[in-house]
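Support case: uridine-diphosphate-N-acetylglucosamine complex. Customer-provided input:
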Amino acid sequence: MKIILVAGARPNFMKIAPVIGAIQQHNCSRKSGGVKIDYLLMHTGQHYDDAMSKTFFDDLNLPEPDIYLGVGSGSHAEQTGKVMMAFEQVCLQHSPNLVVVVGDVNSTLACAVTAAKLRIPVAHIEAGLRSYDRSMPEEINRILTDQVSDYLFTTCEDANDNLRKEGVSADKIHFVGNVMIDTLLKFRDCALERIQVRMQGRYALVTLHRPSNVDYQDVLQDIFEALTEVSQKLPVIFAVHPRTQKQIEDFGVGKSFLVSDWDFIHKKSLSRTVYLLPPLPYLEFLHLLMHAECVLTDSGGIQEETTILNVPCLTLRENTERPITVTEGTNFVVGNNPEKIVASVERILESGIPPKKPAPRFWDGEAAERIIEVLSRISV
Ligand code: UD1
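Agent response - structure generated as follows:
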């Protein structure tokens, strides 16, 4: 069986890495007669800076991509269209039996639709998540990708319910668990060992990149005021996404924040201020995540990671497509009102470390193996 694995943007790399590991393990251990899985790793180039791409390949021991589309940035239509045009040629050249896409970025949708139109079966890893907020580009990507997919691999029961409500037949849905957590569990010790110096003192960790938070000057300004107030209580480390960096420069906000870097923050004792860092490699970020007092974010994956690490997480959005991180984890969806953000941090600091809950079902490091077990039974 020949499959193409698609990755395009930063959060895709952590999701595709365990799938590659599980394929390699399957091929080594398969009994005579079992199907061998040949894979090609394709990088669309949606994210292209070293800090958003190459460092993840290095940290996660990912092989060099076999195919690189190099599409780069652009409007949604432009980026999606460019990936579709390039990927159609790839499919015609390689005739895969299956295309595997992960997550909800523009590359995910573009490759799923392209393959489906060529009648190539599509597997979607992390299917069925819904925020029920169609102002998020990712929600459109999720809904459409799931509609054209043949194998829908889910991380939780609510995703199964969402898919059933949308009329997806039960035999297409496979509840396998969370591949991002496979990677987290595999690299957790490595993140502790590689970074010899443990972070000194308490701090809050911040990431922001959603258009709803960073694309409007008044909203970003309000969030920055909240961060300034939080920093009076404990130091704030803010790993800045390139999209957010551009907005900071264009709007001229965050001028009182301290531009810093990894070397500084993990060697010096931190002051009560906001430190702006460039996007961090996976292991460094994981290290910061593990030792944070609390995390403020609008990322989807970080809501899941903090749930497993038992670190309180404030999601600066009005909704989440990952409600299990609230009901079974450490996540609080608080929106982006500055008073509410500050009050929520105060509440977390007063209540201390949350009692440890059991991990959500199948968030156990073996999701990718379950996926490959299903895929290896496909007859081609
Ligand atoms: C994308 C995904 C989002 C995901 C996020 C993770 C979509 C619709 N959005 O958002 O779901 O949570 O990735 O990071 O697919 N840029 C660089 N260097 C890069 C990549 C981007 O400077 O390597 C800058 C460019 O100015 C670009 C902007 O960031 O225009 C946004 O990049 P884009 O891939 O369009 O969306 P993200 O905001 O990164």
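The mean pLDDT is 95.

Case will auto-close in a few days if no follow-up is received.
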